[in-house]
Sequence to fold (382 residues):
Amino acid sequence: MNFTLRFPTEIIFGNDTINQIGTKARQLGNKAFLVTGKSAMRKAGYIDKIIDILKSAGVDDIFLYDQAEHDPSVETVDKGVQLAKEGNYNVVIGIGGGSAMDTGKTIASLMNNEGSAGDYQSGKEITNPGVPFIAVPTTAGTGAEITNNSVITNREKKIKQSIRSPLMIAKVAIVDPVLTKTMPPYVTASSGMDALTQAIETYVSLSANPFSDTLALRSISIISQNLYKAFENGDDMSARENMAMGSLFGAMAFANSALGAVHGLAHPIGALFDVPHGVICGLLLPYVMEYNLPAKTERFAQIAKSMDQYIEGESDEINAHRAIEFIHNLITKLKLPKRLSELGITRDDLPLIAKSAKGSSLNNNPRPTDPESLVEIMLSAL
Ligand SMILES: [Fe+2]
Fold:
Protein backbone atom coordinates (compact mmCIF):
# COMPACT_ATOMS: atom_id res chain seq x y z
CA MET A 1 0.00 0.00 0.00
CA ASN A 2 2.65 2.50 -1.09
CA PHE A 3 1.71 5.69 -2.81
CA THR A 4 3.12 9.12 -3.49
CA LEU A 5 0.81 12.08 -3.91
CA ARG A 6 1.69 15.07 -6.07
CA PHE A 7 -0.46 18.12 -6.69
CA PRO A 8 -0.23 21.73 -7.79
CA THR A 9 0.90 23.86 -4.84
CA GLU A 10 -2.46 25.62 -4.84
CA ILE A 11 -5.82 24.38 -6.14
CA ILE A 12 -8.38 27.17 -6.02
CA PHE A 13 -11.99 26.09 -6.53
CA GLY A 14 -15.19 28.08 -6.72
CA ASN A 15 -17.43 30.43 -8.68
CA ASP A 16 -15.63 33.63 -9.75
CA THR A 17 -12.24 32.47 -8.41
CA ILE A 18 -10.86 33.55 -11.81
CA ASN A 19 -10.73 37.02 -10.23
CA GLN A 20 -7.71 35.78 -8.23
CA ILE A 21 -5.63 35.10 -11.34
CA GLY A 22 -4.02 38.56 -11.25
CA THR A 23 -2.62 38.31 -7.74
CA LYS A 24 -1.63 34.64 -8.20
CA ALA A 25 0.20 35.36 -11.45
CA ARG A 26 1.92 38.43 -10.00
CA GLN A 27 3.31 36.33 -7.14
CA LEU A 28 5.05 34.19 -9.77
CA GLY A 29 6.11 36.74 -12.38
CA ASN A 30 5.37 40.01 -14.14
CA LYS A 31 5.39 38.88 -17.79
CA ALA A 32 2.67 36.40 -18.70
CA PHE A 33 2.54 34.12 -21.72
CA LEU A 34 -1.16 33.37 -22.09
CA VAL A 35 -2.03 30.18 -24.00
CA THR A 36 -5.53 29.44 -25.22
CA GLY A 37 -7.50 28.13 -28.18
CA LYS A 38 -9.02 30.29 -30.86
CA SER A 39 -12.71 30.20 -30.15
CA ALA A 40 -15.18 30.00 -27.29
CA MET A 41 -13.39 31.84 -24.47
CA ARG A 42 -12.60 34.73 -26.76
CA LYS A 43 -16.15 35.00 -28.03
CA ALA A 44 -17.48 34.98 -24.49
CA GLY A 45 -15.17 37.89 -23.63
CA TYR A 46 -13.38 35.94 -20.91
CA ILE A 47 -9.92 36.39 -22.38
CA ASP A 48 -10.29 40.17 -22.43
CA LYS A 49 -11.54 40.07 -18.86
CA ILE A 50 -8.59 37.93 -17.75
CA ILE A 51 -6.11 40.26 -19.46
CA ASP A 52 -7.68 43.18 -17.59
CA ILE A 53 -7.42 41.36 -14.25
CA LEU A 54 -3.76 40.53 -14.93
CA LYS A 55 -2.92 44.09 -15.89
CA SER A 56 -4.54 45.61 -12.86
CA ALA A 57 -2.50 43.27 -10.65
CA GLY A 58 0.74 44.52 -12.19
CA VAL A 59 1.31 41.85 -14.85
CA ASP A 60 1.72 44.42 -17.57
CA ASP A 61 3.45 42.47 -20.34
CA ILE A 62 1.09 39.84 -21.73
CA PHE A 63 1.53 37.80 -24.90
CA LEU A 64 -1.66 36.13 -26.13
CA TYR A 65 -0.77 32.87 -27.87
CA ASP A 66 -4.16 31.68 -29.07
CA GLN A 67 -2.82 28.88 -31.27
CA ALA A 68 -3.73 25.81 -29.19
CA GLU A 69 -5.58 23.54 -31.61
CA HIS A 70 -7.46 20.46 -30.51
CA ASP A 71 -4.87 17.71 -30.12
CA PRO A 72 -1.96 20.17 -29.95
CA SER A 73 1.02 19.45 -32.19
CA VAL A 74 4.77 19.41 -31.60
CA GLU A 75 5.04 22.43 -33.94
CA THR A 76 2.53 24.52 -31.95
CA VAL A 77 4.42 23.82 -28.73
CA ASP A 78 7.86 24.48 -30.25
CA LYS A 79 6.71 27.78 -31.75
CA GLY A 80 5.25 28.80 -28.38
CA VAL A 81 8.48 27.97 -26.55
CA GLN A 82 10.45 30.05 -29.02
CA LEU A 83 8.15 33.08 -28.66
CA ALA A 84 8.01 32.81 -24.88
CA LYS A 85 11.82 32.55 -24.65
CA GLU A 86 12.36 35.49 -26.99
CA GLY A 87 10.08 37.69 -24.87
CA ASN A 88 11.54 36.42 -21.54
CA TYR A 89 8.10 35.59 -20.19
CA ASN A 90 8.31 34.39 -16.60
CA VAL A 91 4.88 32.89 -16.00
CA VAL A 92 2.76 30.79 -18.40
CA ILE A 93 -1.01 30.59 -18.11
CA GLY A 94 -3.03 27.92 -19.96
CA ILE A 95 -6.76 28.60 -20.27
CA GLY A 96 -9.17 26.23 -21.99
CA GLY A 97 -9.79 22.51 -22.37
CA GLY A 98 -7.13 19.81 -22.17
CA SER A 99 -5.52 20.94 -25.41
CA ALA A 100 -4.90 24.54 -24.32
CA MET A 101 -3.73 23.51 -20.84
CA ASP A 102 -1.43 20.82 -22.28
CA THR A 103 0.04 23.31 -24.76
CA GLY A 104 0.68 25.86 -22.01
CA LYS A 105 2.02 23.25 -19.62
CA THR A 106 4.49 21.94 -22.18
CA ILE A 107 5.64 25.42 -23.22
CA ALA A 108 6.25 26.35 -19.55
CA SER A 109 8.18 23.11 -18.92
CA LEU A 110 10.44 23.36 -21.96
CA MET A 111 11.48 26.99 -21.53
CA ASN A 112 14.58 26.01 -19.53
CA ASN A 113 15.19 22.73 -21.36
CA GLU A 114 16.75 22.50 -24.82
CA GLY A 115 15.28 20.69 -27.80
CA SER A 116 11.90 20.10 -29.44
CA ALA A 117 8.77 18.73 -27.76
CA GLY A 118 9.22 15.78 -30.14
CA ASP A 119 12.49 14.84 -28.39
CA TYR A 120 10.76 14.70 -25.01
CA GLN A 121 8.01 12.52 -26.48
CA SER A 122 10.71 10.12 -27.54
CA GLY A 123 12.02 9.73 -24.02
CA LYS A 124 14.33 12.71 -23.42
CA GLU A 125 14.05 13.73 -19.78
CA ILE A 126 13.02 17.17 -18.52
CA THR A 127 15.84 18.02 -16.12
CA ASN A 128 15.43 21.72 -15.33
CA PRO A 129 12.35 23.27 -13.75
CA GLY A 130 10.50 25.38 -16.30
CA VAL A 131 8.79 28.68 -15.64
CA PRO A 132 5.78 28.56 -13.28
CA PHE A 133 2.55 27.42 -14.91
CA ILE A 134 -1.02 28.39 -13.98
CA ALA A 135 -3.77 26.09 -15.31
CA VAL A 136 -7.34 27.30 -15.79
CA PRO A 137 -9.76 24.66 -17.08
CA THR A 138 -12.86 25.78 -18.95
CA THR A 139 -14.26 22.27 -19.42
CA ALA A 140 -15.16 19.62 -16.85
CA GLY A 141 -12.93 17.98 -17.93
CA THR A 142 -9.73 16.42 -18.80
CA GLY A 143 -7.93 16.92 -15.51
CA ALA A 144 -4.94 18.52 -17.23
CA GLU A 145 -4.88 21.20 -14.50
CA ILE A 146 -3.67 18.53 -12.05
CA THR A 147 -1.61 16.01 -14.05
CA ASN A 148 2.16 15.78 -14.54
CA ASN A 149 1.95 15.14 -18.26
CA SER A 150 0.76 16.55 -21.54
CA VAL A 151 -0.50 14.69 -24.58
CA ILE A 152 1.06 16.02 -27.77
CA THR A 153 0.38 14.90 -31.33
CA ASN A 154 3.14 14.27 -33.79
CA ARG A 155 1.28 14.73 -37.08
CA GLU A 156 4.20 13.54 -39.20
CA LYS A 157 4.49 10.24 -37.36
CA LYS A 158 0.70 10.08 -36.77
CA ILE A 159 1.15 9.42 -33.06
CA LYS A 160 -0.19 10.96 -29.88
CA GLN A 161 2.22 10.62 -27.02
CA SER A 162 2.71 11.93 -23.51
CA ILE A 163 5.51 14.07 -22.19
CA ARG A 164 5.72 13.35 -18.50
CA SER A 165 7.65 14.79 -15.57
CA PRO A 166 6.91 15.81 -11.98
CA LEU A 167 8.40 19.16 -13.06
CA MET A 168 5.39 19.71 -15.34
CA ILE A 169 2.80 20.01 -12.57
CA ALA A 170 1.12 23.41 -12.49
CA LYS A 171 2.01 25.75 -9.61
CA VAL A 172 -1.58 26.96 -9.37
CA ALA A 173 -4.83 25.48 -10.70
CA ILE A 174 -7.85 27.79 -10.75
CA VAL A 175 -11.06 25.78 -11.19
CA ASP A 176 -13.88 28.27 -11.68
CA PRO A 177 -17.18 26.57 -12.64
CA VAL A 178 -18.49 29.85 -14.13
CA LEU A 179 -15.95 29.47 -16.95
CA THR A 180 -17.56 26.16 -17.99
CA LYS A 181 -20.91 27.81 -18.62
CA THR A 182 -20.08 28.73 -22.21
CA MET A 183 -19.36 25.12 -23.19
CA PRO A 184 -21.81 23.98 -25.89
CA PRO A 185 -23.79 20.79 -25.07
CA TYR A 186 -21.60 18.57 -27.27
CA VAL A 187 -18.43 19.67 -25.44
CA THR A 188 -20.16 19.33 -22.06
CA ALA A 189 -21.07 15.75 -23.04
CA SER A 190 -17.71 14.70 -24.45
CA SER A 191 -15.51 16.30 -21.77
CA GLY A 192 -17.85 14.97 -19.08
CA MET A 193 -17.55 11.44 -20.46
CA ASP A 194 -13.75 11.83 -20.40
CA ALA A 195 -13.96 12.78 -16.71
CA LEU A 196 -16.27 9.85 -15.93
CA THR A 197 -14.04 7.42 -17.86
CA GLN A 198 -10.98 8.66 -15.96
CA ALA A 199 -12.66 8.12 -12.59
CA ILE A 200 -13.91 4.62 -13.49
CA GLU A 201 -10.60 3.52 -15.00
CA THR A 202 -8.73 4.78 -11.94
CA TYR A 203 -10.98 2.91 -9.51
CA VAL A 204 -10.37 -0.47 -11.24
CA SER A 205 -6.74 0.22 -12.24
CA LEU A 206 -3.87 -1.90 -10.94
CA SER A 207 -2.38 1.25 -9.39
CA ALA A 208 -5.52 2.15 -7.42
CA ASN A 209 -4.74 3.14 -3.82
CA PRO A 210 -6.91 4.17 -0.87
CA PHE A 211 -6.50 7.84 -1.74
CA SER A 212 -7.45 7.47 -5.41
CA ASP A 213 -10.31 5.08 -4.49
CA THR A 214 -11.97 7.64 -2.25
CA LEU A 215 -11.83 10.44 -4.79
CA ALA A 216 -12.65 8.25 -7.80
CA LEU A 217 -15.85 6.89 -6.23
CA ARG A 218 -16.96 10.35 -5.21
CA SER A 219 -16.18 11.62 -8.70
CA ILE A 220 -18.25 8.81 -10.29
CA SER A 221 -21.15 9.63 -8.00
CA ILE A 222 -21.07 13.39 -8.69
CA ILE A 223 -20.62 13.06 -12.46
CA SER A 224 -23.31 10.41 -12.92
CA GLN A 225 -25.79 12.66 -11.09
CA ASN A 226 -24.88 15.89 -12.87
CA LEU A 227 -23.55 15.30 -16.37
CA TYR A 228 -26.94 14.99 -18.06
CA LYS A 229 -28.28 17.99 -16.11
CA ALA A 230 -25.36 20.17 -17.30
CA PHE A 231 -25.84 18.90 -20.86
CA GLU A 232 -29.58 19.53 -20.88
CA ASN A 233 -29.37 22.98 -19.34
CA GLY A 234 -25.99 24.68 -19.60
CA ASP A 235 -27.19 27.49 -17.31
CA ASP A 236 -27.82 25.10 -14.41
CA MET A 237 -25.03 26.48 -12.22
CA SER A 238 -25.45 23.82 -9.57
CA ALA A 239 -24.86 21.09 -12.20
CA ARG A 240 -21.91 23.06 -13.63
CA GLU A 241 -20.38 23.48 -10.18
CA ASN A 242 -20.81 19.81 -9.39
CA MET A 243 -19.33 18.75 -12.73
CA ALA A 244 -16.28 20.97 -12.15
CA MET A 245 -15.83 19.37 -8.72
CA GLY A 246 -16.44 15.82 -9.96
CA SER A 247 -13.89 16.31 -12.71
CA LEU A 248 -11.38 17.81 -10.26
CA PHE A 249 -11.77 14.88 -7.82
CA GLY A 250 -11.30 12.37 -10.65
CA ALA A 251 -8.20 14.22 -11.85
CA MET A 252 -6.70 14.27 -8.35
CA ALA A 253 -7.32 10.51 -8.24
CA PHE A 254 -5.91 9.49 -11.61
CA ALA A 255 -2.95 11.88 -11.44
CA ASN A 256 -1.91 9.88 -8.37
CA SER A 257 -2.79 6.45 -9.76
CA ALA A 258 -3.29 5.30 -13.37
CA LEU A 259 -5.88 4.87 -16.12
CA GLY A 260 -6.68 1.79 -18.23
CA ALA A 261 -7.38 0.32 -21.66
CA VAL A 262 -9.92 2.98 -22.72
CA HIS A 263 -7.17 5.59 -22.55
CA GLY A 264 -4.65 3.10 -23.97
CA LEU A 265 -6.84 2.83 -27.09
CA ALA A 266 -8.04 6.45 -27.16
CA HIS A 267 -4.58 7.80 -27.96
CA PRO A 268 -3.89 5.83 -31.18
CA ILE A 269 -7.52 6.35 -32.30
CA GLY A 270 -7.21 10.10 -31.65
CA ALA A 271 -3.95 10.24 -33.61
CA LEU A 272 -5.40 8.41 -36.62
CA PHE A 273 -8.93 9.85 -36.65
CA ASP A 274 -10.04 13.40 -36.02
CA VAL A 275 -12.42 12.71 -33.15
CA PRO A 276 -12.48 14.49 -29.76
CA HIS A 277 -10.81 12.50 -26.97
CA GLY A 278 -13.91 12.45 -24.75
CA VAL A 279 -16.09 11.05 -27.53
CA ILE A 280 -13.73 8.12 -28.03
CA CYS A 281 -13.49 7.53 -24.27
CA GLY A 282 -17.26 7.48 -23.75
CA LEU A 283 -17.78 5.21 -26.73
CA LEU A 284 -15.22 2.62 -25.63
CA LEU A 285 -15.93 2.77 -21.90
CA PRO A 286 -18.82 0.25 -21.63
CA TYR A 287 -17.04 -2.26 -23.89
CA VAL A 288 -13.79 -2.09 -21.95
CA MET A 289 -15.78 -2.39 -18.69
CA GLU A 290 -17.40 -5.55 -20.09
CA TYR A 291 -13.94 -6.96 -20.88
CA ASN A 292 -12.57 -6.01 -17.45
CA LEU A 293 -15.59 -7.18 -15.50
CA PRO A 294 -14.30 -10.68 -14.60
CA ALA A 295 -11.11 -9.16 -13.14
CA LYS A 296 -12.84 -6.60 -10.90
CA THR A 297 -16.46 -7.66 -10.47
CA GLU A 298 -16.71 -6.41 -6.90
CA ARG A 299 -15.25 -3.02 -7.80
CA PHE A 300 -17.67 -2.63 -10.70
CA ALA A 301 -20.52 -3.40 -8.31
CA GLN A 302 -19.18 -0.62 -6.08
CA ILE A 303 -19.24 1.68 -9.09
CA ALA A 304 -22.93 0.80 -9.59
CA LYS A 305 -23.46 1.81 -5.96
CA SER A 306 -21.83 5.20 -6.59
CA MET A 307 -24.09 5.64 -9.60
CA ASP A 308 -27.12 4.85 -7.47
CA GLN A 309 -27.81 1.78 -9.62
CA TYR A 310 -27.08 -0.88 -7.01
CA ILE A 311 -29.77 -3.37 -6.05
CA GLU A 312 -29.34 -4.82 -2.56
CA GLY A 313 -29.44 -8.62 -2.56
CA GLU A 314 -28.41 -8.97 -6.20
CA SER A 315 -25.01 -10.46 -7.10
CA ASP A 316 -21.95 -8.32 -7.77
CA GLU A 317 -22.08 -9.48 -11.36
CA ILE A 318 -25.63 -8.25 -11.90
CA ASN A 319 -24.84 -4.95 -10.22
CA ALA A 320 -21.66 -4.58 -12.28
CA HIS A 321 -23.75 -5.02 -15.42
CA ARG A 322 -26.13 -2.35 -14.16
CA ALA A 323 -23.20 0.09 -14.08
CA ILE A 324 -22.39 -0.77 -17.71
CA GLU A 325 -26.05 -0.35 -18.67
CA PHE A 326 -26.09 3.04 -16.99
CA ILE A 327 -23.18 4.18 -19.21
CA HIS A 328 -24.93 2.94 -22.37
CA ASN A 329 -28.07 4.89 -21.44
CA LEU A 330 -26.12 8.00 -20.52
CA ILE A 331 -24.32 8.04 -23.89
CA THR A 332 -27.67 7.73 -25.67
CA LYS A 333 -29.11 10.63 -23.64
CA LEU A 334 -26.01 12.74 -24.37
CA LYS A 335 -26.47 12.06 -28.11
CA LEU A 336 -22.86 10.88 -28.47
CA PRO A 337 -21.78 8.28 -31.05
CA LYS A 338 -22.16 4.70 -29.87
CA ARG A 339 -20.22 2.79 -32.51
CA LEU A 340 -16.66 3.12 -33.85
CA SER A 341 -18.08 2.78 -37.38
CA GLU A 342 -19.87 6.12 -36.84
CA LEU A 343 -16.41 7.69 -36.50
CA GLY A 344 -15.34 6.29 -39.87
CA ILE A 345 -13.37 3.42 -38.34
CA THR A 346 -13.52 0.10 -40.22
CA ARG A 347 -12.61 -3.47 -39.33
CA ASP A 348 -9.38 -3.08 -41.34
CA ASP A 349 -8.20 -0.24 -39.07
CA LEU A 350 -8.39 -2.25 -35.87
CA PRO A 351 -5.10 -4.22 -36.03
CA LEU A 352 -3.07 -1.02 -36.52
CA ILE A 353 -4.88 0.71 -33.62
CA ALA A 354 -4.30 -2.33 -31.39
CA LYS A 355 -0.63 -2.51 -32.33
CA SER A 356 -0.11 1.21 -31.66
CA ALA A 357 -1.77 1.05 -28.23
CA LYS A 358 0.87 1.12 -25.52
CA GLY A 359 1.92 2.95 -22.39
CA SER A 360 1.15 3.13 -18.71
CA SER A 361 -2.64 3.23 -19.16
CA LEU A 362 -2.63 -0.14 -20.86
CA ASN A 363 -0.15 -1.61 -18.38
CA ASN A 364 -2.44 -0.65 -15.50
CA ASN A 365 -5.59 -2.13 -17.00
CA PRO A 366 -6.97 -4.64 -14.47
CA ARG A 367 -7.18 -7.47 -17.01
CA PRO A 368 -4.13 -8.09 -19.22
CA THR A 369 -4.54 -7.18 -22.89
CA ASP A 370 -2.71 -8.09 -26.08
CA PRO A 371 -3.29 -6.89 -29.66
CA GLU A 372 -5.80 -9.71 -30.24
CA SER A 373 -7.93 -8.92 -27.18
CA LEU A 374 -7.85 -5.21 -28.03
CA VAL A 375 -9.15 -6.01 -31.52
CA GLU A 376 -11.91 -8.12 -29.92
CA ILE A 377 -12.94 -5.20 -27.66
CA MET A 378 -13.04 -2.82 -30.61
CA LEU A 379 -14.98 -5.33 -32.71
CA SER A 380 -17.68 -5.38 -30.04
CA ALA A 381 -17.78 -1.57 -30.29
CA LEU A 382 -17.72 -1.45 -34.11
FE1 LIG B 1 -8.93 11.36 -20.75
Notes: The chain has two domains: 10-180, 183-380.
